[in-house]
Design brief:
Blueprint (H helix, E strand, L loop, with lengths): L2 E2 L3 E2 L6 E2 L2 E2 L4 H14 L3 H20 L4 E3 L8 E3 L3
Antiparallel strand pairs: 1-4, 2-3, 5-6
Length: 83
């Protein structure tokens, strides 16, 4: 469960940030570290991006759209059904 503290001023595009505390599974934490290494982003930016991508994908699917993944070049497209 996330714990929120009051907004504080920042130089982000949104003008503020909110601090939350989360408990990650060991697998999720390893995936976070792997993603940080692959993208060269910090943990905060990686988590922010993941949340935005998840929200976008959920919105597309809930509004009747489809998202397809090609795992390797030339492979069949796989439709994302749920996360």
């Amino acid at each position: 469960m996330a714990t929120q503290t009051p907004n504080r001023e920042s130089t982000t595009k949104q003008g503020h940030t909110v601090r939350v505390t989360v408990k990650l599974t060991e697998k999720a934490y390893r995936d976070l570290l792997k993603t940080v290494e692959l993208t060269d982003l910090n943990k905060t930016d990686t988590i922010n991006r993941a949340i935005r991508v998840h929200a976008w994908m959920t919105d597309v699917i809930e509004n009747g759209g489809n998202i397809y993944v090609e795992e390797k070049p030339g492979a069949d497209l796989l439709r994302v059904k749920t996360f």
